[in-house]
Amino acid sequence: MLYYALVFLVVALIAGVLGFGGIAGASASIAQVLFFIFLVLFVVSIVMRLMRRV
What's the chief localization of this chain (predicted)? Predict the structure, then answer.
């Protein structure tokens, strides 16, 4: 999932450089959402792993 967030970030950067504001904004929003989903799943995974050890 982090891979897809980075892909959308790169697409947003390229679209922004080329002047496609709408596509850049949409891609940046998608990248941000995917990053936060990845972050939440990562934290849940760490917590579950710590709970399993106890």
Answer: membrane
